Amino acid sequence: MFDRLDETWQAIRVEVKPKTASNKVAVVFAGAAHTHRLARAAMVLIDADFVAETSPLTRAVYECALTTHWAAQVDDSALQLSDQEIRAHRALVRELQEARLLDQIPPERRKLPSDQDQHITKITFEQICDDLNPGGDEAYAIYRILSAYSHATTTAIGRYLQPDDRQPLGFTASDVAEPEEPDFQVFLLVASLVWAGRAVDYFDSGHSRRSELRSAARAIGINSELVPSDKFHMRTI
């Protein structure tokens, strides 16, 4: 199923609906493209039996897919994401200044954005999950699980430890002690392709992939469309 979804994505020809905001289209199409490319790389690792090592990529795919799906349905999503980028860049520049490392980034990236460049309330991925239904706590919990296996946590590094009768602590230098099954990660990768593809479908006047995406969603037991939640409507009143 993954290969088929990826194949039809790469062959897609979209006719954008008239009067659609170009900045939103750009964010959604680029987000969907990034989702698919990262997912393709993740599947290469899984096919090579690097399942544990795929967690950081799967997390990135999942985050990008949900963000893209959210962006397709929120009127000022492009501005909110741009605003978040400004905040992150401001923090980076200040940290580099304090560490006297500012000359390590290109000159055009050294400018510190002004407070006037700020427009909207900070948006986080947890907020994005809360804005979607289905989504919310369950969606964010999946992200947290993937994060635990993506960073230098005891959860992640503990996979290389194993009992050893000859010494107090044993470890394996080349592989995880208990190899993981890829099913959950493959499920998330396929789901992410559905959500990213469905985001693009909102703007496709011909809806060339809608039936395929809905069919794939039914096959793996997910909703192909994540709609704005009650929390979103309350937040934006």
Descriptive account of the structure:
With 237 residues, the chain is mainly α. It has one domain (2-76, 120-235). 57% of the residues lie in helices and 3% in strands. It contains ten helices and four strands, in the order H-H-H-H-H-E-H-H-E-E-H-H-E-H. It has helices spanning 2-10, 22-47, 55-73, 77-98, 125-130, 136-148, 154-157, 183-201, 210-220, 230-235, and strands at 132-133, 161-162, 170-171, 227-228. The strands form two sheets. The protein has a two-stranded antiparallel ribbon. The protein is globular, with a radius of gyration of 20 Å. The two termini are 40 Å apart.
Compile the SSE list and pairings.
Elements: H1 2-10, H2 22-47, H3 55-73, H4 77-98, H5 125-130, E1 132-133, H6 136-148, H7 154-157, E2 161-162, E3 170-171, H8 183-201, H9 210-220, E4 227-228, H10 230-235
Antiparallel strand pairs: 1-4, 2-3
Helix pairs in contact: 1-8, 2-3, 2-8, 3-8, 8-9
Descriptive key words:
two-stranded antiparallel ribbon, mainly alpha, 237 residues
State the secondary-structure class.
mainly alpha
List the helices and strands in order. HHHHHEHHEEHHEH
Average pLDDT reading: 85
Uncertain residue segments = none
Report the span from N to C terminus.
40 Å
Radius of gyration: 20 Å
What's the number of structural domains?
1
Q: Name the overall outline.
A: globular
E-strand count: 4
Q: Strand count, sense and closure of the main sheet?
A: 2 strands, antiparallel
Task: Work out the helix count.
Answer: 10
Determine the fraction of residues in helical runs and give it as a percent range.
Answer: 55-70%
Placed side by side, the strands forming the largest sheet appear as 1-4
